[in-house]
Each structure stands twice: as structure tokens, then as C-alpha cells.
Fold this sequence. Notes:
The chain is α/β, with parallel strands linked by helices. Helix content is 51%, strand content 13%. The protein is built from twelve helices and five strands. The chain has helices at 3-13, 17-20, 74-88, 116-119, 140-147, 152-169, 172-189, 195-202, 210-236, 241-248, 252-261, 268-281; strands at residues 33-39, 44-51, 59-66, 93-102, 124-128. Strands 1-2-3-4-5 form a five-stranded mixed β-sheet, sandwiched between helices.
Amino acid sequence: MRRDSIFYKLFQQSPSLLFELLTNPPNNAAEYRFDSVAVKEPKFEIDGVFLPPPNQNPGVVYFCEVQFQKDERLYERVFAESYLYFYRNRDRFSNLHIAIIYPSRNLEQTDIGPYLSQLNSPQVYRIYLDELGDIRSLPVWVALMVLTILEENRATEEARYLLARSHQETPRPENRAIIDLLTTIMVYKFEGKSQREVEEMLGITLKETRVYREIKEEGREEGEKSLILRQLNRRVGELSQEVLKHVESLSLEQLENLGEALLDFTSMADLDAWLSGLDGNS
């Protein structure tokens, strides 16, 4: 299950979601912007950074790590990333806070001795999703996070409950976003099931949701790519790794254009000329 991308979408849609999990959220939580950043020398990728509003300068920056696998060097990395980014942007920020989200305590790093002072600091939050309480008593956005860790048999029941609840409690634009994210969670959680089976579980039509449209588009592009590669091999011979990589990087529209053009190809030179023309027009 692709939890990283799911949590990224959750935070993008509702940046204030993180602050619903913290004991001391900032007063202007609704004004924060979610981002992901890279820190060079050494190269670090920080999954979740919550930036204060521009009118608050310097402001407090929040870092978030979602950890669903055991990592015995997690705290080394998280603290190094966060403090290095804070150091390089010191003029922008007056303080920093760090939140680590686990599904449960048993996935926490075993040796925490070197970091007890940080972990016991009011600036560091360790959040365990399975200890947040009954999913039905949580705010809907927080409940979506908990939904990712439920067993399949219970997840179906709670997903249907959250769908019904979101219809009643949230305005239309936000409700649409909740439905899209909930169905994304369920589609990835039940990867072995067909579209119809997931629809029946949730009592909705996935064709109406963004996740279904995205999956359908991905499938269409992969199918188009596979067909065109087979046709090219027949018409111009086996493709080199460089040409193969170039073709695989084309957009769906470009693949469709290539599918029409290749009917006139008789040699590899024709394909090379077409790809060169494409680069020249980009």
C-alpha cells in the first residue's frame, strides 16, 4: 500500500491536519502551507515541511515524518535533516517542531538513548495512530489517517461509515476531496480486488472519483506504450536502450502521435528523425 503518497495527498489537501494531532498547535495553524524539500551537502529529502505564512517572519517551521517500517536509524536521519534545513534557513524561522507519525509503537526505533533529550522535548511529537482512539470519534481527516492501518475486514465497515459521515458533515468541495482520498486508500489497500468489488464494498461508483480516473489514465498510457513499442519493433527493428528510454518517456498525446507517424516508417532512421523533430519542437 502506497502510504507515503496517500499521506502526502492528505497533507496537501488539508495542511492543518498535522496540527490536529499535536498537543500544542500554533494559533495560525490554518495558514500553514505544506511542502517537501531537499537539503544538499549532504543530500536529504524531507517528506513533510509545514511552512508558516509569509506574513509571519520569522515563523515556526514544522517537520513531519510518516514511518510505517522499522528503521533503526530513523531519529539520526530525521533530526539531521530537520536541523540542517533549519540552519540553512535560520533567518526565516524563529523555532522548529518535529512530528513523527507511526502506525504503532512497535515500529519505533529500538535504541533511543542518544535522543532522549530531543524526544522528551515539547518540540518533538511521537504520534501512534492506533492510540488516537475510536476512529468514529475522530475528526474526518484524522480518521482517514487511521483508516490506512485498519485490517481489511474492519476497514470496509469504517470506510462506509466515513463516507456517510462526510456527506452529512462537510460542504461539497471538501466532501469531494474526502471521497477521493478515502477511495484512494481503499483501492490501494485492496489491490487484489476488481473495480466492481471495491465499488460494492463502498457502495459507490469509482468512475466518479479521481483515483479511478487516474488509474484508468495510467492504464491507458501503459497500454498505448506497449502497443507502440511492439509496432516499432516490427517496422524498424529492435530498439536500442537509449531509443527505448526516449519512447517510454513520451506523454500520452505524443505516444498517440507516434502511433500515427510510425505507419510511414521503413527504417530506424525514420524513428530517429521523428524523435529529433519532437525534441526540436519542445
